[in-house]
Amino acid sequence: MSSASDRLPLPRVLAFASVGMPLSAIGLPMAVFVAPMYAEQLGLGTTMVGLVFMILRFWDLGTDPVMGWLVDTRPTKRGRIKHWLIASVPVLMIGAFFMFMPMGETVSPFYLVVWLIVLWLGFTMLQTPHQSWVPMITTVYDERSRLFMWREIISTVTLLALLIIPTLLAINYGIDRRGQVMVMGIILMIVLPLTVTLAVSFVPDPAPAEDAPKMEFSWDAIKVAFKDPNMVRILMVEVLVGIAIAGTGGTFLFAAQWGFGVTALAPVILMVFFIAGFAAMPVWVWLSKLTEKHLVFMGTAIWSIATYLVYLPMSALGGGVIPLLIAAIVSGLGYGTPFILARSMVADIIEAEQAKTGENRSGMYYSLMSGSYKTGASFAIGIPYILLGAFVGFDPSGENSPEVVRGLMLVFVGVPVVSYALAAFILRNYKLTRAEQQANAEKLAAQTAP
User: Fold this and answer.
1) For the chain, which residues score pLDDT lower than 70?
2) Whole-prediction pTM value?
3) Are 36 and 396 in contact (CB under 8 A)?
4) What superfamily would CATH give domain 12-204+218-448?
5) Distance of alpha carbon 291 from alpha carbon 1, whole angstroms
6) I need a labelling partner for 377 at 20 to 30 A (CA). Which of 3, 52, 155, 433 fits?
């Protein structure tokens, strides 16, 4: 555990974590609200939207490594991160405007493709440098988890606001999903420049030493990352966690309406799901301080497997608000913590490689991480939507038979359960322990000492 002298000042932690607000305002709401809006109200259908979201997320498999390479090899005299955060703001705001506020009663697939590409590009320009910052901010094992924990807490609070505000608008003013999405877009375009300004102003961004060798793109470095069994395991579980989380968000409103008979209160209950994860995060992180990060990660995965299965009997018994609420609370307790622990573990892996080679390639490593999560998230929209539209026969704007509803619930539960089970299995042999991380940190400290 870190000593008091190792702890980062809370204002600095919060300034870093504040960037979680725009990131969360894009991430899960895209699956929960934006994708259903394009499928239902803008006339594209679940199969088309699922295909577009799944295929275009692979766009990030190209942009993420490029962004990581730029972070590693194109610093300025003032640092390696801040200029990229600033550059992301205009790109992301343009993409958000057209994605969250489409014009006309319907849109073409081409419209969705173009503006989704712009949005994901801006998202990558913000997310990859922001994550890459962590190994430069602190070398302490548990402080890295603390940084990501606070980012997830702020992200969760943002998600709660994005669920509460549209729900209140729908209940009090009758605003439909399209109007609700527009409000989300406005919120995003307000918090994005504000939080980036906070982070740039109050978090240090150390520039490379003047005598440090300039890093260039290296296929060998990428090969080293993929030869590291710890990194490969993290990348694999990141894909699976992306499938589990985004798959839940993308089908929750469908499951609530058709599987439980809950419509108006469904966003509120989804909010409770996030609140449960918010409340449990400090407990899981505290447990990781007593043991190892990967063991607690596996614990959250096993908890999620057991609790997601609760949705099936409760739906079969007739559903209703209270059963859905109970299922959301217990399954939500595992939400969020896998993000924290996996990203903290990558910081340890980066440090281990730096101790061997003297090169800090955090941009490259976190770009691989981002690409893995986005791959999972793309599958999480594509797989359930294609299963629902092409195989189950689910119609979100029409009538569905009891058999179709049972198929919907199996997709809603089965996708995250299988994903979490595979993630826990893969991570069981993770090797980078707390003791090894401390040894790497001491080695780096000795190398940089005058």
Assistant:
1) 1-6, 28, 57, 60, 209-219, 397, 448-450
2) 0.72
3) yes
4) MFS general substrate transporter like domains (1.20.1250.20)
5) 10
6) 433
